[in-house]
Amino acid sequence: MLKNLIYITLLLISFNALSQENGRKIDYENDRQYRDEEKYPGALVMSKVSNQVHFTHQGIEVWCNNAVFYESDNFFKAYGEVRMKQGDTVSMNSDYAEYNGNTQFAFASGTVKMERPQTTLETDTLFFDRIKQEAYYRSGGKVTDTASVLTSTIGRYYFEEDKYTFLSNVKITNPDYVVNSDHIDFYSESGHAYLYGPSTIEGEESTVYCERGFYDTRGDTGYFVKNSKIDYDNRTVLGDSLFFDRNKSFASATNNIQVIDTANNSKVTGHYAEVFREKDSVIITKWPVASSLQDQDSVFIHSDTLLVTGKPENRKLRGFYDVRMYKSDMSGKSDSIFVNQQDGITKLININPGENSATSVKRNPVLWSGLNQMTGDTIQLISNKETEKLDSLRVFNNAFLINKDSIDGYNQIKGQILIGLFEENELYKVDIDKNTETLYYSRTEDKDLIGINKTLSSRIEVYFKERQIEDVYYYQAVDGNLKPEEQVLESNRTLQGFNWRGDERLEKKQDLFKGKEPPELVKIQGIPLPEQIDDFFDEREDGDMLLNENSRLRPQDLKDKARDSIPSVPAIPQGIQEDPATFNSLKSEQEESTKEKDTVTNPKASLKIE
User: What would be one Pfam family of this protein (predicted)?
Assistant: First the structure.
């Protein structure tokens, strides 16, 4: 009993091993076959009559018109209208293919087309590793997606991830844009593309550049984090990170941003910006600074929020809350600011006039030019559009000019309207109209004080030289007197509304942020570096060759290369498919040979039953 059990167990083990071995062998079907030991030693040569030659092996099927099958090596070459199918998700057509059943490694050449549910790959040479579930080309390929066409010199497809890695001369062509890159990882199911190395996304109205980025090729949105910028017609946006939405013509930039206006020689910096291309508008927050070139000198404007609108020929800048302006020879502050570049007008405004608190006073527009301070409800600066030099200024309502005396005290002029004129960007004349009042320190040419002059009139003209008051002219209804200094009390040495704000004056560019805490920058969400790409042609652990020694490829062909096309498709085996007589003769020989084999392997076949 034990002996029989051992025998049955050994029989089952042998049967199971035989089944596993048979499972590894390539099965085939064909209409006709023959052997030609001279041309194809050890191989079966197969041809199509009505049906294509058909191979199956562990989930893969191959059809072709002609084949050379090395059965003992589990290897075949397929010729003519080759079709390869793996499951329901992968199908491939080619002119020629080879397959090694031992290593499950395939190679196709000629006009190769591999189709997946979302993409179609076309190339002239394709390698397919079924163990890794990866396909690879290095001779240039084209992948057609539902939304785009992707081309590259080298490409690798990962079946399990449904992912392509494209290398060298990578290009995505879409009706709305073209992407060029050195390296793109593309996920077929989602249409997501990860860009590495110098990359551009060029559309009709914008060009994006980055060295690491993400782009949704179907949703037309992107995120870029390394040396990234967006170029519009006359505007460039840069930042540590950029977001781009082509559908909404929208972009945003975060941390260390720059918005450069090439048409107007101006730039806005900050740490967050939003760009609306169709509206020609940009909003910048977190320490925004607008700078422009004016008569070879830069003008800087800072506020809590800056808004730039309008076409290049009619740009307008608006700044809101705690506005600070700096130029090498002039500075100013206000609650809000408006700049019309086309008209050359800059307005300093308090949008909450009428208040009398300490905070409100600091909101009132103030302008410093040399030792002169001008305040009022609204201050306008007008530039010559041709020369870009300051032409004039206007102060409306509650105009107050304070000039710090060269030695002591303050010269003061007040009225309803102040008009100042500039020459070579220096204030040289001021007219003050309506209910004017002055307090002036009169001095000799040697700067000796004569007395303090306090005068009322309808209009006053003041002339400056080297930023100091040189002459004062009073017009209409003059009422005033000159008193020695000792006869003027300290309390009477200022006019009503006097407010010297010299401690707020900006003396250098860095004063734009004086007294302000730096903004807390958001942490940029990075894009991971690409995974290390291993050599595609690595040998199996058991030492099996990827392709059989009868392959038309040489060992040196199975190496990763910068670019390489396998030589043209070999000639289809000749003879059997063109000579019916030869085919019939070979068929008879094979039938006789089969009978002889049956007689030897099955002795019962030779017994005659009487």
Answer: OstA_2
For residue 44, tell me if it sits in a domain. yes
Within-domain flag for 256: no
Find the mean pLDDT for residues 187-205.
Answer: 92
Q: Which residues pair with 479 in a beta bridge?
A: 456
Number of domains forming the structure of the chain? 1
Q: Which two tokens stand for residue 38?
A: 């001279």
> What is residue 567's predicted lDDT score, i.e. its pLDDT?
59
Inside any domain, residue 114: yes
Torsional class of 447: left (φ above 0), alpha (ψ -120 to 50), beta (otherwise): left
> Which of 161-175, 313-327, 334-348, 543-557 shows the lowest mean pLDDT across its residues?
543-557
**Proportion of the chain in helix, strand, coil states, percent, rounded to 5:** 15, 50, 35
CB atoms within 10 A of CB 309: 15
- What span, in angstroms and rounded, lies between the C-alpha atoms of 80 and 8? 48
Residue 32 resides in a domain: yes
pLDDT in tens, 335-367: 999 998 888 899 999 876 655 555 556 678 999
Q: Tell me the two tokens of residue 29.
A: 């079907």
Between 22 and 199, the more confident residue is 199
Q: What is the CATH number of the domain that holds 36?
A: 2.60.450.10
Q: Which residues contact 365 (CB under 8 A, 6 or more apart)?
A: 332, 333, 334, 335, 348, 349, 350, 375, 376, 377, 378, 379, 395
- Is-contact 164 185, C-beta < 8 A? yes
Which pLDDT belongs to residue 87?
A: 86
Six-digit token pair at 150? 């992707």
Gyration radius from the chain CA atoms: 43
The phi and psi torsions of 300 (rounded to 5 degrees) equal -115, 135
Range of the domain at 52: 27-138
Residue 97 near residue 111, CB atoms below 8 Å = no
Question: What would the pLDDT profile of 467-510 be if each residue is shown by its tens digit?
Answer: 777 888 888 777 778 888 888 888 888 999 899 998 899 999 99
Please classify residue 373 by burial: count the beta carbons closer than 10 Å to its beta carbon, then call 0-12 exposed, 13-18 middle and 19+ buried.
buried
The 8 Å CB, 24+ separation contacts for 444-453 are 447/406, 447/407, 449/407, 449/485, 450/482, 451/482, 451/483, 451/484, 451/485, 452/409, 452/482, 452/483, 452/484, 452/485, 452/488, 452/493, 453/480, 453/481, 453/482, 453/483
Q: Which residue has the higher pLDDT, 575 or 191?
A: 191
How many percent of the chain have pLDDT more than 90? 49
Residue 489 and residue 505: Cα distance in Å, rounded?
28
pTM: 0.78
